[in-house]
Amino acid sequence: MEKSWQASWLTDSEFLDLEPRNVFHREHASSAAPEEALGPRNIHMLARRVFTVPASSGRAHLDITADDYYKLYVNGVFVGQGPAPAYPEHYYYNRWDITGFLQPGVNCIAVHVYYQGLVNRVWNSGDHRQGFIAELFVDDHLLLASDASWRVQRDQRFQAAEPFGYETQFPEHMDERRLAKGWREVTFDDSLWAAAAERPGYDHQLYLQPTPPLEVSLRRPVLVELVDEGRFFIDVGEEVTGSLTMDAAGLAGQVVELRCGEECLPGSAKRVRWDLRCGCQYREFWTLSGLGDTLEHFDYKAFRYAEILDPHGAVDPATIRVVVRHYPMSPEASQCRSSQPLLDDIWQMCQRGVQYGSQEGFLDCPTREKGQYLGDLTVTAHSHIYLSGDLRLFRKALTEFAMTQRIAPGLLAVAPGSFMQEIADFSLQWPEQLLRYYQHSGDRDFLQAMYPTVEGILQYFRRFQRRDGLLDHVHESWNLLDWPENLRDGYDFPLTKPVGPGVHNVINAFFSGMLAAVNDIRRALGLDVSTEAAQARQAFQRAFFNEETGLFVDAEGSHHSALHSNALPLYFGLVPAGRERSVAAFVRRRRLSCGVYMAYFVLKGLARVGQPDAVYQLLMDTSEHSWANMLREGATTCFEAWGKDQKWNTSLCHPWASAPISVLIEDLAGVKPGGPGWSQVQFCPRLPDELTSLHLAFLVPDGTLQVEADERRVRLSGMIREAVVDITRKRGGGCE
C-alpha cells in the first residue's frame, strides 16, 4: 500500500452487517454459491460533505475510491469517475487535482456511489463490499476525511428492473420526483439525510491507480430530427460509448421514453433497434419532476442511434447531447491516408473500435459483456500500443491477469471481475503478451516481477503433457479454438465443454508458441533457456504434419486440415523447413474462413513466411468474410464477426477485430521495435505495388513515427528518445 489512510470507509447501512463474500473460485468448482443468494443489487448511494477552505489555500487534491464505482462532484461540477475495476487485495484509488474546483470559504464535495451486486465481467461485485473512502489535502495537509459527519441517502430515482446483456447492466428507469434537486450544491439542505455509517475493518488494500481516469466529454449529435409528432431521431454519426443527456421541462409524472441502438430497424432508416442483436435492451423511461430536469444516467451504453418519444413536448431538443467516455486517446494522433480509400476506412473503423472498446480495461465489448478478456489482449492491446503510445493500460491488464493465478493456476480468462471463466487458448498467450510489452517498454524490472507467473502457467499446463510433450485432454478449461463455432472451418476435433481425451492441433500450437516465448523471456532476463520448445516443435510436426498433403491436420488420426491448424503453425514458426510454401498456399486459398480474432494469426502467419502480397489481399478482400463487409454493413467500429448475421448475438463494437492496425504497421510498413523499449528500430517495408502512396502516423513510447511512401521510395521518420530515423529503399529493392 502506498499511503496510510486516516479516513473511514463509509457504507450504506444495509451493508453494515453483511460480511464480505468470496466470489472467486475455479470455473467448475462445485462450491460456487447460487447467484440468487448474493444480496443487495443495483444500489445507488449519495454522499455529501460541506466544509470550509481557508482563503490563503494553495494546491488541493482528493484521494478517493469506491466499491463498485463513483462519480465525483465539487460545488455541483462534475470532476471525474472511477475507479478502474480491481481485486480487493489490490484495489485502486484515484487522485484528483481539485484546486480549480474549490473556492475560498464554504464548499461541497458530493459523491454518487454505485453497487451493482451482480456476478459478471464488469466489476468484482456481488461480494457485499460497498461504499467509499476519501481524503482531501490542501497544501499537503489533510483538511477533510470521510467519516460519520458526512450525510448519505439512497438515490431512489432508479427504479427496480431486471438486468440485461450477460447480466451486466440494469436499465435505468428514472423518476425525478424521488430526489430533491440540487443535492450536489453547497446550499442544499441535507438535514433530513442520515449520518454516514462507518465500516470497521474494511479489507480493501488500496493502491494509486496506475492508469489515468477516463476521458469524459459532451458531443453534439450530427442529427437531431423531429420525424413524427413527439418523436425525435438522433444520429451520433458513429458508434460511441456513453449515454444521452438533455433538459426537459414538463409536468410532474410525465414520461419520456428513450431508445438507443447500434443500428436502425430493417426497412426503416429512422426507427432504432433498441433490442440489440447482442442481447442488450436499450429502452428506458424517464419520469419528470415538474421542476425542470436534466437527464443523467449513471451507466453507459454503446450506441449510434437514439429515439426520444416525447408526447408532451417536454424535451428541449437544443440540449440533446451524448456523454462520451473512453480511455484517453486522441484519434488524430494516429492516421492512415493512402491511395486506397478502402484501406483508410478499415484503419478508421478499427481505430474507433479500439478507442471506444478501451475503457478502464480492454473490453471484450462495451455492450453485452463489458469485461476484459485475456485472449483479446493479443489483438486489442497490440493495436492500442500504436494508436495511443500509452503502455499503462496494457501493463495494468497483464498485472490483473497475473493476480488470477491465486484463483486458477492457469489464469482466468476474465480479469478483473467476479465472473469465473477459464480458456486454455487465452492462458497460453499471456507469456507472449508479456514479451510484447517488454519489447515496447524495455521495462526489465516488470518482466522480472512477472516471471514467476510465466513459470506458474508453464507448470500448470505440464500436468496435461503426455510423454512426447504434447498436451492431451486439457479438460479443466475451455478449448476455444475460435468463436463463433460456425467460423471454425470444419475443425475436426470435438471441442466439448469440458473437452474429451485426445491431442488436437490448436491447443498444442499455442503451447509450442508459449514455450518459445518463455525462452525469449529467459534470454532477456539472463536465464538459461530450455530445449523444451525445440522438442515440442518436433513433436507437433510428427503428430500433425501430413507429408503427403504438405499440410497440418486438426488432430491425431484426423485427415482434415482447417485454416486454423495451418495458420497457427505459420505464426509460431512450426512448419518444417522447406514446406512453408504449401502451408501458406493453403492458407491463402482458405482466406478468412475463420473468426475476426483468428484473422490476426492468419495475417501475421503469412507475413512471417514472406507473403506480404497475400496479407494485403486479405486486408483488402471484399467478400462476406472481410473488413470491407463490415463497412458495407454500415460499421463505424469493427464488429465481433465479419457480418451482423454471421453470429447469433453479434456486437457491433468489438476491438478484437482490429488486427489491421498492427499488421499494416509491422508487416507491410515494416516498422517494429528492434530492441527493448524501441532502443532500436527495425524497418523493412514490404508495401505492395498497388499502394502507390501512403501516409502512416502512429505512436510509440516517447515519440511518433511516420511512414511516407510513393512510387520512388519509402521513408520512415520520427523521434524516439530524441533519435531521428530516416531510412529509404528503392521500390522493389531491399532494405537499407
What does this structure look like?
The chain is built from 14 helices and 32 strands. It is α+β, with helices and mostly antiparallel strands and 736 residues long. The radius of gyration is 27 Å and the shape is globular. Strands 11, 15, 16, 17, 19, 20, 22 and 23 form an eight-stranded mixed beta sheet that branches. The chain folds into three domains: 9-210, Jelly Rolls (Sandwich), CATH 2.60.120.260; 217-326, Sandwich (Jelly Rolls), CATH 2.60.120.260; 331-720, Glycosyltransferase, CATH 1.50.10.10.
Fraction in helix? 10-25%
**Strand runs, count:** 32
Name of the level-1 CATH class of the largest domain: Mainly Alpha
Structural class: alpha+beta
What Rg do the Cα atoms give?
27 Å
Average pLDDT number: 94
The CATH topology annotation of the largest domain reads as: Glycosyltransferase
> How much of the sequence is in beta strands?
15-25%
Keyword list:
single chain; 736 residues; Jelly Rolls; Glycosyltransferase; 8-stranded mixed β-sheet; 6-stranded antiparallel β-sheet; disordered C terminus
List the topology elements:
Layout: E1 9-11, E2 43-53, E3 60-67, E4 69-74, E5 77-82, E6 91-97, E7 105-115, E8 131-138, E9 141-145, E10 151-154, E11 174-175, E12 194-195, E13 197-199, E14 206-208, E15 215-219, E16 223-228, E17 231-245, E18 247-248, E19 255-261, E20 283-287, E21 293-294, E22 301-309, E23 321-326, E24 335-338, H1 341-357, H2 374-388, H3 392-403, H4 424-427, H5 430-441, H6 444-462, H7 505-524, H8 532-544, E25 545-546, E26 551-552, H9 563-572, H10 580-590, H11 596-608, H12 612-619, H13 627-632, H14 659-668, E27 671-673, E28 681-683, E29 694-700, E30 703-709, E31 714-720, E32 723-724
Parallel strand pairs: 6-14, 11-20
Antiparallel strand pairs: 1-13, 2-7, 2-10, 3-6, 3-8, 4-5, 4-7, 8-9, 10-12, 15-23, 16-17, 17-22, 17-23, 18-21, 19-20, 19-22, 24-29, 25-26, 27-28, 29-30, 30-31, 31-32
